[in-house]
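In response to a reviewer's request, we include the raw inputs and outputs for one of the modeled complexes. The two entities were modeled together in a single run.
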Amino acid sequence: MSYLPDRSQSPVKKPDGSLDFDLSSGKYLKLWQGPQHPGITGNMSVELTVCGDEVVEGRTHVGYLHRGFEKLMERRTFIQCFPIVCRICVPEPDFNEYCYAAAVEELAGIEVPERADWIRTLILEMGRINSYMMYLGGQAGAFGLGVVGQWTTYVRDLMLDRFEELTGGRIYHMFILPGGVRDELPEGFGARMEETLREMESTLRDVWDVMFNNAVFKKRAVGLGYIDPDWIEPYGVTGPTARAAGVPLDVRSNQPYLVYPKLDFEPVTGTGSDTFTRAEVRFRDVQMSIDLVRQILARMPGSGPVMAEIPNVLHWKIPRGETWIRGECSRGEYGYYLVTDGSGYPRRVNVRGPSYTHAMALLEKLIVNVNISDVAGLMVSLHTYPPEIER
Amino acid sequence: MSVRDVISPFTAWKNVFRETVSIKDPINSRPGAPRYRGFHQNDMEKCIGCGTCEVICQNAAIDMVPVDGQEARDGDSGLRPRIDYGRCCWCALCVDVCMTGSLTMSNEYQWVDSDPDVFRFIPGAEKKSWDDAELGYRRPDDHHIKPAARVSMGEMEPQVRIGNFDEIVDGYSIEQAVLEADRCVECGLCVATCPTHMAIPDYIRAVREGDYEQGLRLLYDSNPFSQTCGRVCTHKCETACAAAHDGDPIAIRWLKRHITDQVPIEKYTEIIGKPAEPTGRKVAVVGAGPAGLTAAYDLARKGHEVHVFEAQAGPGGMIRYGIPEYRLPYDVIDNEVGVIEAQGVKINYNCRVGTEITMAQLRDDHDAVLLTIGLHLGRSTRIPGSDHPMVMKAVDLLRDITEGKALEVPRTAVVIGGGNVAMDIARSIARLQQQKFGKVGMTVTALEDFDHFLADPEEVKESFEEGIEIIDARGPREIMLEKDGRVSGLKTWKVLSIFDEDGRFSPQYDDGDEWIHFGEMVIEAIGQMSDVSVLGEELTEALEWNRGRIRVDQAGRTSEPWLWSGGDCVNGPDVVHAVADGHRAAASIDAYIMAKQEEA
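The model returned the following structure tokens for the whole complex.
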């Protein structure tokens, strides 16, 4: 009973790959989804050409959210970059803080205390859980399952409470800075975190029943947005999107950083490579992150410094050098390329957010022949955040 | 797809009777976390207006502004941060970098107002509901974004240094100096406190950047005695230093010395530059100490002909004849004076004014005269026996040691006094004792207790290390003599208080707590005065006086229009004050003689 479109009307491809269609023929319609649209993940837009209710071509457009962070950083001292990097990706800001701090530390030759690495890992996993909670709500919502978003927003809020007591901020934590982290865990943090994790697990059970064992969700998500494993490398696909295609790309295990070598985990993979599998992989990834948070709190050394001795930040100069720091965020591989020239300012900072490849090139490929009503669900399934596309 | 997939979603209904999780009244029932980065607080008394918060703010949200009731004073600019909440991003770097810990954040996060201007406010000065909030972000104790500890200075071990008069401290290496210079936050509070207003943050930056020639140029802009001040300055700047509120103050004195060490002495004059074209005006300076030579340097650079008259055989005045060589080597003074002479200053040694030449002659031969005669006479306790030949004045002994006179070194000696001069003479005699007898036998008795000691803590520490006994709160009562008339020691009583209720010097003793300190010699180091006999009777009569010192105006001019005075003889012992006096007097003299030239 699956949907069988009539493709006899579809435009043919010209030798250069573009489609040959005549808008004035009345057969085709231009339809903009975004930049202000509930079915778009943030401030970007997709210029759709539809034939009937089927997309024949989609062009992605960005530029609505350009704040010029990379350029701004070239005019700020190394410490002054610290409060602005988190803004590059709002829902999961901690990767920016970690990658930037690690890049500065490597070029400045600073060794971070071990306990700071544990706290950094903890924060990154907490951020991953939160990011996935937003995703699950968004993915369900894109197919009309509004209640899941309400539940995941609730448990995400509990995790934000933990962020607030640990870092002093709910959204922009600004806690991982070059040299270490700002402070120790607050008194009784472990017990309150355990409470939060239990509430989260209880909610996830409901999400599993309502979202993953749901005829509507399965009907719309299974088979939607199939990604061939062969496309993973040429399209620069990383993270859960690649893992759902059976390609076990996970920087945490492939090129371990922080304290991941001391933690027990296996990257979650799937085989279906469609919207449903990607959602399932992320669902299991949350469970793994919950387990990792427990492991971290249990295995973290009891005491020790959390901040290395760093030079006076007011006129901190870093010798000439360049480095590439990467980490596994909830969407895939996150990276910072930092070039220093011996002055007090970064010479060049380049931020690689996984959303760039996923939301632009890959989406354009996957969107062809998708029903208009599934465009939102497809886009969410790539888990993209426009703020990190436009640095 | 299964039957379960159809039924399972309906389990959502089990939540229908659940309590709502949203907070109805967050303003009252949901305070921010204990370390929440909420609205700013500033302890106005603790804040020193150093402006590091303004510098670090990447949003330019902070401006340092004057505030009613906050006056500028040593170590406090009088300015306070005003924060613009239209720009602030609550990153709390301002709190992290705050030198005093005065700037903090409350856990308050609700502030509603229809007037946008109120969101630019001065925390602490404008009353806010969160001013007294105890919760909120404070810089954690171990969280430093700049090094707090001073780079330690290498120095000779006590057992080695006690046997000679070699300089004790090593001076910083380039690596050490750069590390120490890195700690400076460039707030400039030190500049205001330094009597001669040296461009301290600028020359410290020159150290960081390895530009020593620029550093030297900056030093000589305000202080031609930088080598000396780099060793023995009383470094008031370091007490005003913002870094002292969160760790050790920057070693400003050592960094100054480091610059002078790094530039070869033969390049000094080339870097400083040549003096201006001759103006044809002549100035006489009496005394070749820091005040006189600073004025001479300034005046010579302006093109005036300067003649300095010095009673001693060498230059330096109090810094040569009052400060021991292990603190300030003589070749340093010679180098320093050489640079001044290279600007055209002529120094006549062994020329005592009042004997070889009179003040009246100087007045007649020059357009102006500057009197900088130091404090070369020691004061006496006038206790019984203090007129004994083996009861000496510290300042006389120090001068004898500098001149290399053969002294009768006592096996044991007692010093009366607790200031730096007492330490200087005790440590100098201790070195001579070590050289002659192989052991130290020095006792220092001070009127003050250790909590109110006058000598620098470093001096006290180093004296102890060198085996000198220091006994605090002892008042001298009598010189003890043997039957044959030789000095055998000093009798002291315990000091109960030094000043009376009106703050006047009136020591009270406990005569039940008597102590005899044995010594073949007793040395008085209780203060110095000027040898004003150089003035002659007529001038002494004509001048206005201020408690035994010549009265001068702010520019250093005396009541006689042709005569200026400055340095220790006017303002008491301190090298850097003397340098500042020299500058002031030179500026005033220059203005006076140039005006005279125009009149003529």
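As requested, we also summarize the result in words. The two ends of chain B are 114 Å apart (CA to CA). The first helix of chain B runs from residue 3 to 7.
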